Amino acid sequence: MVSYRYLGRSGLKITEITYGNWLTHGSQVENDTAKACVRAALDAGITSFDTADVYANTKAETVLGEALKGERRQSLEIFTKVYWPTGPGGANDSGLSRKHILESIDGSLQRLQTDYVDLYQAHRYDESTPLEETMQAFGDVVRSGKALYIGVSEWTADQIRAGHALATDLGFQLISNQPQYSALWRVIEGEVVPTSAELGVSQIVWSPVAQGVLTGKYKPGQAPPAGSRATDEKGGARFIGRFLEQPDVLQRVQDLTPVADELGMSLAQLAVAWVLQNQNVAAAIIGASRPEQVTENVKASGVTIPAELLARIDAVLGDSVVSDPAETAKNAPPAR
């Protein structure tokens, strides 16, 4: 079964393998398959589920709400996010203004069929709204009982520090950040992780398998498999391109196979286990288009990778690793 970790400096425990439905529910896979994936997650011991209002323009939340209907609410940890445009894309249909946050939490709760979410996350930093306004609105969401804790996603170290200070002053907890993190994408290690560890903030990381590159299914010199994320024009291909454009990254991934074999793991399991070696990581988010993928990936829970094998992974991946902390700010929207 999946192990639990505390989220930040709070008393909330979440499963270190968390099920996420970005790019799948309401989009890539049919609803019946999506529900089967959620069922597989529950059967494997996953109780933490991550979504966002923007995923499939609110449809992903609806699908997740349906899939979790009938489960004991107190036994689940449900996360969602707010920032990106939803609905018809009106002037106030995005960002972290008080208006958008307070309207968005109500929509998310309705779609998720719950009275509260365990974690409500700022999906990006909003340069167009004063941070004080954003954090005051989040504080009101917590005090209303509609969210238990607040988190952020893809914030820089300075933004996390400023948000954490305001949350503390306002009497609620900012306990998590949700960044991209994998053996190939390590941009949080230099600044975000040390700052977060100091403040009692955990990472809930997305794309631990680098959009599928670290599974080894993309072979050097071969076209991407039909139906894979690299062929998904709805969004998947755009995110995975940064890895496929590097000339030798696919061969380096294949060269990790002996390390995975030594641990009795698949390359995908190795990738998920790798991010969980970071003590500031509370959970790795996995997605799935088939229930079997969930069943396989949860086997990464509880694994300890010896130091010598971690060093071998570093040596194999070499300069294909992206570690510049500036990438976090570079990928942030300058305005909503």
TrEMBL record:
CDD domains, sorted: Aldo_ket_red_shaker-like
Signal peptide (UniProt feature, chain positions): none
Domain (NADP-dependent oxidoreductase): residue spans on this chain: 16-316
Keywords in alphabetical order: NADP, Oxidoreductase
InterPro entries for the chain: K_chnl_volt-dep_bsu_KCNAB-rel, NAD(P)_OxRdtase_dom_sf, NADP_OxRdtase_dom
A Pfam family per the record: Aldo_ket_red
Similarity annotation: Belongs to the shaker potassium channel beta subunit family.
Name of the protein in its database record: Aryl-alcohol dehydrogenase-like predicted oxidoreductase
Organism the protein comes from: Cellulomonas humilata
Organism classification: Bacteria, Bacillati, Actinomycetota, Actinomycetes, Micrococcales
